[in-house]
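--- STAGE predict ---
source: upstream dedup step, 1 unique chain passed
mode: sequence only
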Amino acid sequence: MDPLAFLAGAAATAGACAGVPLYLRARRAERLAIRLGAELEIVRHAASHDPLTGLPNRRAFYLRGTELVADRNRHPLVAVVLDVDGFKQINDVFGHSAGDEVLVTTARRLSAFADDGLVARLGGDEFAGLLRCRKGSSQEQADRLAEALAAPMRLGGQVVTVSVSVGLVPVEPDAHLADAVHRADAAMYRVKGAHRRPHPPAQHLAIRIGEQHVLHHATLRLAKPRETSPRPSTAT
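--- STAGE serialize ---
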């Protein structure tokens, strides 16, 4: 065998063997980078989203909402603040897991109604949204929102209709989002105050649009589960 050919072959083999550990280390580094990137994305999502409903949280709502308000192509917009009426009663009657179910259902319905708008859970049973509003259709939008949020749901083995209080105000392109949300929140509390006044057995679902006050009837059935009569004692 030619010594030079032998040496060349040996060198090539040694080079290939030396390259294998480098390739394996590179592959491990690539997999580690992918895993760390996925974990970082999970952390980022958790920092900006509500863990129960999956909606953006308060901080994310204001960050993204400020961008939407500044984008004139997104207008006209309305700011919405809403919360669930008698939420403590729901927890007391059906339990906290049922209360969580109401929040998740409300979040899902609000998201579906908002379409490409921004909705968030601010905390507790309070939600906010920044939605498109077509000119001249505020009344229709209020009707659709009322119908979507007041649709019956199954809870604790029975069908219930939960009412909500909603404040809805227009948002101008040069407005501050925090101011718009504050006005919507104030409108929502005025509606909630109206709920506390004596009224017929049917609760009211109310939507406030500017100075207009639109009321929608929605029966709230929160009867406790039927209690069985105690068995007569068989003791003699």
